[in-house]
């Protein structure tokens, strides 16, 4: 069953456009939503949450259209925005007491068990929490009202490697029973290499590719060749960089001829992002 | 919607703004003062500070993530504003009654706090609300122009009514002469003022609601 189905969603602004964005997230999996800053990740997330009106297309969550069933679906969505703080001068206890009243399935036992597990002191103010603890607090809130879909916008930005790893383990544990799905936007691609099942890559408002993680990286090759070999593949490369040894460039796997004597490896997510960004820059 | 109102009183509205109606209301004890100013403290202090706080705390996004409708968001905020206005006016009326019993012989150049005067105050707050709500909810975060225009509208009404009451003998008689002892006239002005306040606030809410539906968060 699909937890999230984004179908041909478009939204036009004066200086930016999301064009026919489509991707699907299966129930019980983690999807990494990657793209450079300004690629359209947060705008897409806001469209999914019906905070922005869609020009065309449709967003379905667990088979229901968000625009038509917003209240019902928000009961089962949990969110965390890494770079946005709400009521930071309020104590956890006060904020939770306000928030829990909005959710029909709120469970105090679950909430306090997560507070203990995440070592959150409810007498602390939001501003006294570290970035990682803030994300954990949002997770505790989401899980206490029975969220089935977690939408996390840059949740690991600004975290140290230990805190990031800890959080990624929690994400994996949450989806392990198959009930919860996570859409996780980030530009820190190494996080996704550790925990994502699917990758959706957005670049300049368009989805470049959405696929299972291994399939995603396997569909590209990173070439390392000598300068005189560049002309043999130049037209097929997504983009390339010249260096003193020759060139490195990204190419779609199906466009690469293994007969050529050019060293080809499967790229990392970061390398894919970088070469696509370079392609955009070449056409600006 | 009740939960949204509760949310505002628990985390959105600083406690000070719940005490302020008592403090500003006590200004009614100054003999012979411009008593309309007492309610203006709500417009000058409470509203801009409250809306600035809402913006600083990212309240719009916080609320939008909760399972609530956009209409309920507007309705709750309007309710909170009206509750605060009523707090201000109720305490001002209480202190106004004390004023009348403390200084029965004081000559008031400006309106004395009789029932009819409170009717005018309700109209003044209604004018404030219609401008504030309709303009603020064009964006739901820019409060400067909305507050300035709303204060301007309310002050214009206050100055005009005071000027008419001083210049026009018929109106002067209602607020300064024999009219102040005519309970029916005074009560009628108060009720009419309350009805106009309700009408203007409801129109303001409807305009705000329509505009907020188009706001992208």
Automatic annotation (TrEMBL), chain A:
Residues 1-229 form the ABC transporter domain. GO terms for molecular function: ATP binding. SUPFAM superfamilies: P-loop containing nucleoside triphosphate hydrolases. InterPro entries: AAA+_ATPase (IPR003593), ABC_transporter-like_ATP-bd (IPR003439), ABC_Transporter_VariousFunc (IPR051782), P-loop_NTPase (IPR027417). SMART domains: AAA. Keywords: ATP-binding, Nucleotide-binding, Transport. This is ABC transporter ATP-binding protein. The lineage of its organism: Bacteria, Bacillati, Bacillota, Bacilli, Bacillales.
Automatic annotation (TrEMBL), chain B:
This is Membrane protein. It comes from Paenibacillus glycanilyticus. The chain crosses the membrane at residues 16-42, 80-103, 115-136, 143-164, 184-205. Keywords: Membrane, Transmembrane, Transmembrane helix. InterPro entries: ABC2_memb-like. It holds the Pfam family ABC2_membrane_5.
């Amino acid at each position: 069953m699909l937890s999230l189905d984004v179908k041909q969603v478009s939204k036009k602004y004066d200086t930016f456009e999301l064009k026919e964005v489509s991707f699907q997230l299966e129930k019980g999996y983690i999807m990494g939503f990657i793209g450079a800053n300004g690629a359209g990740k947060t705008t897409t997330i806001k469209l999914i949450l019906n905070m922005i009106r869609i020009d065309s297309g449709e967003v379905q969550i667990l088979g229901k259209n968000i625009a038509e069933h917003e209240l019902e679906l928000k009961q089962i969505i949990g969110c965390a925005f890494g770079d946005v703080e709400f009521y930071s001068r309020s104590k956890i206890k006060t904020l939770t007491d306000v928030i829990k009243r909005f959710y029909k399935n709120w469970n105090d036992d679950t909430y306090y068990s997560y507070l203990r597990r995440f070592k959150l002191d409810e007498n602390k103010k939001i501003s006294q929490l570290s970035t990682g603890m803030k994300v954990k607090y949002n997770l505790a809130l989401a899980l206490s009202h029975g969220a089935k879909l977690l939408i996390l916008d840059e949740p690991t930005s600004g975290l140290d490697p230990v805190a990031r790893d800890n959080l990624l383990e929690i994400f994996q544990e949450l989806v392990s029973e198959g009930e919860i799905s996570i859409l996780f936007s980030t530009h820190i691609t190494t996080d996704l290499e550790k925990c994502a099942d699917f990758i959706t890559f957005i670049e300049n408002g368009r989805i470049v590719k959405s696929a299972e993680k291994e399939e995603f990286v396997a569909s590209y090759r990173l070439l390392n060749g000598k300068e005189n070999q560049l002309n043999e593949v130049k037209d097929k490369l997504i983009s390339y960089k010249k260096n003193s040894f020759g060139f490195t460039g990204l190419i779609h796997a199906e466009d690469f001829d293994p007969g050529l004597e050019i060293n080809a490896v499967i790229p990392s997510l970061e390398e894919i992002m970088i070469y696509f960004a370079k392609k955009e820059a070449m056409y600006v | 919607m009740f939960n949204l109102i509760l949310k505002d009183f628990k985390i959105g509205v600083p406690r000070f703004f719940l005490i302020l109606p008592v403090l500003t209301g006590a200004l009614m004890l100054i003999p012979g003062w411009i008593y309309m100013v007492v309610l203006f403290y709500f417009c000058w202090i409470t509203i801009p500070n409250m809306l600035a706080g809402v913006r600083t705390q990212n309240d719009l996004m916080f609320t939008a993530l909760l399972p609530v409708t956009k209409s309920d968001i507007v309705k709750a905020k309007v309710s909170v504003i009206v509750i605060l206005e009523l707090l201000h006016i109720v305490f001002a009326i209480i202190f106004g009654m004390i004023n009348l019993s403390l200084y029965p012989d004081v000559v008031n150049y400006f309106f004395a706090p009789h029932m009819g005067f409170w009717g005018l105050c309700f109209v003044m707050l209604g004018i404030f609300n219609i401008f504030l709500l309709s303009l603020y909810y064009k964006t739901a975060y820019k409060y400067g122009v909305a507050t300035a225009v709303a204060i301007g509208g309310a002050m214009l009404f206050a100055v005009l009514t005071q000027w008419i009451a001083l210049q026009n003998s018929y109106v002067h008689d209602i607020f300064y002469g024999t009219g102040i002892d005519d309970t029916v006239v005074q009560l009628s002005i108060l009720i009419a003022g309350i009805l106009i306040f309700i009408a203007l606030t409801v129109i303001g809410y409807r305009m705000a609601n329509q505009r907020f539906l188009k706001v992208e968060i």
